[in-house]
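C-alpha cells incoming
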C-alpha cells in the first residue's frame, strides 16, 4: 500500500520539478551594449563626404544557447539612439542641420527593435557568425521594416561583438536632405549606418 501511494507522488514531483529545471537551463542571457560600442552614419554631398557619430545610445541583446548546435540563438535585441546627440565634429551649424533633418525635437529617439533573425556559422571562420537581423527601424517618426547584416563573435571573457552596416534612403523616412550655404551644399539621399556593438553582462 505504501508503494502504491509513494510512486504516484514521486512521479508528480518529477513532473513539477522538470519544467523548472528546463526553464533555468534555457533562459536567455541579457547583455547590454558597453561604452566600447560605436554607432555612426556615413553620407555624401556635392562637396565632401561626411560622418556623424551617436554620442549617446543604449540597448541590449538576449542570447540563448541552443541545444545540439554551436550557433547562438538571439531571441531579442533593441538599440536606441538619441537623435539630438548625433554630431559630426565639424561645426555646430552642420550638427544643427542634421538634427533638424532628423526632426530630433519632435522625435528624439531613433529605435531599432528585432522581430526576426537568422544566424549561421561563417564558412571562413567557424568562430564567427553571419547574422541577418530583421526588425522595425523608427527614424524621424517613421517606421520601416529593414534587414541588417552583421557579423558576430564571442570573446574569451564571454562578451559578444557585433559589427555590420545598413544602407538606407533618407527619403524613405520622409527626411529632407540637409542643405547649407544657401543651397550650394546638398547632401546625398543615401546614408550608411555603421554598427560596432560590444555586448556585456549587465
Amino acid at each position: 500500500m505504501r508503494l502504491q501511494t509513494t510512486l504516484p507522488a514521486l512521479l508528480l514531483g518529477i513532473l513539477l520539478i522538470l519544467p523548472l529545471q528546463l526553464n533555468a537551463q534555457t533562459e536567455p542571457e541579457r547583455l547590454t551594449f558597453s561604452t566600447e560600442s560605436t554607432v555612426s552614419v556615413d553620407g555624401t554631398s556635392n562637396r565632401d563626404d561626411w560622418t556623424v557619430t551617436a554620442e549617446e545610445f543604449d540597448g541590449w541583446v538576449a542570447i540563448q544557447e541552443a541545444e545540439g548546435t554551436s550557433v547562438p540563438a538571439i531571441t531579442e535585441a533593441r538599440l536606441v539612439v538619441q537623435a539630438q546627440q548625433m554630431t559630426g565634429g565639424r561645426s555646430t551649424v552642420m550638427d544643427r542641420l542634421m538634427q533638424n533633418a532628423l526632426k530630433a525635437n519632435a522625435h528624439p529617439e531613433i529605435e531599432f527593435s528585432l522581430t526576426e533573425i537568422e544566424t549561421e556559422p561563417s564558412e571562413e571562420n567557424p568562430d564567427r557568425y553571419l547574422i541577418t537581423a530583421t526588425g522595425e527601424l523608427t527614424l524621424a517618426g517613421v517606421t520601416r521594416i529593414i534587414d541588417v547584416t552583421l557579423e558576430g563573435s564571442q570573446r574569451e571573457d564571454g562578451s559578444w561583438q557585433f559589427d555590420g552596416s545598413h544602407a538606407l534612403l533618407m527619403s524613405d523616412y520622409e527626411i529632407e536632405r540637409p542643405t547649407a550655404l544657401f543651397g550650394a551644399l546638398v547632401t546625398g539621399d543615401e546614408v550608411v549606418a555603421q554598427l560596432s556593438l560590444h555586448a556585456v553582462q549587465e
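note: The chain has two helices and 13 strands.
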